[in-house]
Amino acid sequence: MRRILLTVAYDGTDYHGWQLQDNGSTIEGELNRAISELTGSVTEVIGASRTDSGVHGLGNRAVFDTESSIPAERFGPAINTFLPDDIRVMSSTEVSASWHPRKVRTVKTYEYRIDRGRIENPLMLRYAWHVWGELDLEAMRAAAEYLVGEHDFTSFCAAASQVEDKTREIISIDVEESAAAGELVIRVRGYGFLYNMVRIIAGTLVTVGQGKIAPEDVSGILEARDRTRACETAPAKGLTLVSIEDV
Amino acid sequence: MRRILLTVAYDGTDYHGWQLQDNGSTIEGELNRAISELTGSVTEVIGASRTDSGVHGLGNRAVFDTESSIPAERFGPAINTFLPDDIRVMSSTEVSASWHPRKVRTVKTYEYRIDRGRIENPLMLRYAWHVWGELDLEAMRAAAEYLVGEHDFTSFCAAASQVEDKTREIISIDVEESAAAGELVIRVRGYGFLYNMVRIIAGTLVTVGQGKIAPEDVSGILEARDRTRACETAPAKGLTLVSIEDV
């Protein structure tokens, strides 16, 4: 038995998220179906990150076990012939049989895109949150500094989460005007994230940028350990899981 | 009667092009319907550029005549409430009653995007042509120089075109690696374009980049005035009409 690691990209718009569901197609479900059809035996992948409905991926990861003798690097192109064209295996490689994508220490990079035009740009509709009006980028950057480092992120985790330990470490948060005109990108890098964490961070930084709360209020929000204290969860469509790197 | 000029953006993926058709939705058809519903009287727009099925717009133009007293700049937001969200009026202004979007001298800017990744990126699927393998950008730029200026572009016009005078003037062609990773942009600016002209230029420059023909061959292709001499028409989805400016 061999374990194959896939790097997976997808436009999440038309999927009910990563995780397998009874109703509605999911990235995981499409991968399971494609690999099973390719290899002729029922196969289930284990994903690194269960992205939400509407969230996009450029560098998500999944592993599966197979008896197939297809060379590891040929799996990607072969699986792609069984996938819809908005899901693509970008690369495939063999790993040890015990390697588990959620049990290795990795750095995840997310990008949250904001369409800054007066009218929502139809070409950014699937991939950005439209926020019109002034945004104070320096205030957003100052607020982001309170979040960098190791903290209890209970205030930045969906209340529905079952996770007990909500301490996570953020390496960096960059707020950048993109080369593409009228686009703002919030790039968050960290060792692990809670449910909805990046989207709640994006929603909170935008609220700071709009001057509705002060950058230093973010410190109190963190300390409160109470989801109701942070701001709105930003829409899923603006979020892309860009990469997962081993450390 | 007042004449209102609209700047129109759209994701062309799900439309049968700009021009009104009996079957299938078009940008023109959606605009006619939306404005008629808003004003309560049957209205038909006149477009500046009849982009093909699958081609995108950021700055296309259309005018319509109306008896409505809605202030000119308020038409855009009002029409948008009647449009699907992949078509957006970006701005609206009043022009003189005789102003015609195809009878004014303008500079049009098109961008043709190419996805240069080994595997097609699902997030660029709707907006770029996937071309893997080496491309010699310097050769593409050298070839582009033969096309800049005033020429008879018969070789770069779809054979089906009914236009008699095929002389057009291209102001500039830039071949740029985009800030976005793995993307190449061919930006073409000119005073007017023939049917499929930018897509045939893109297809020809890519063929040069692949080394299948030499940059100087483009000179002979132009002189031949024969569509069969130029290369493949690049796919519609990579093309965006970025702007139309008065000169």
Break the fold down into its secondary structure elements and pairings.
Two copies of one chain form a homodimer.
Chain A: E1 2-10, H1 27-39, E2 46-47, E3 56-66, H2 72-80, E4 87-95, E5 106-115, E6 129-130, H3 137-147, E7 149-152, E8 167-177, E9 183-190, H4 197-209, H5 217-224, E10 239-246
Parallel strand pairs in A: 3-10, 5-6
Antiparallel strand pairs in A: 1-3, 1-4, 2-3, 5-9, 5-10, 7-8, 8-9
Characteristic key phrases:
22% helix; alpha+beta; Alpha-Beta Plaits; homodimer; 2 domains; 247 residues
Explain what you see.
- Two copies of one chain form a homodimer.
- Chain A is an alpha+beta fold and 247 residues long.
- The first copy, chain A, folds into two domains: 94 residues, Pseudouridine synthase I, catalytic domain, N-terminal subdomain (Alpha-Beta Plaits), CATH 3.30.70.580; 141 residues, Pseudouridine synthase I, catalytic domain, C-terminal subdomain (Alpha-Beta Plaits), CATH 3.30.70.
- In chain A, 22% of the residues lie in helices and 30% in strands.
- The first copy, chain A, is built from five helices and ten strands; from the N terminus they run βαββαβββαβββααβ.
- In chain A, strand 2 and strand 3 form a beta hairpin.
- In chain A, helix 3 runs antiparallel to helix 4 and helix 3 runs parallel beside helix 5.
- Chain A is globular and about 60 Å long.
- The model of chain A has no long low-confidence stretch (mean pLDDT 96).
What is this structure, in a nutshell?
2 copies of one chain form a homodimer. Chain A contains 5 helices and 10 strands.
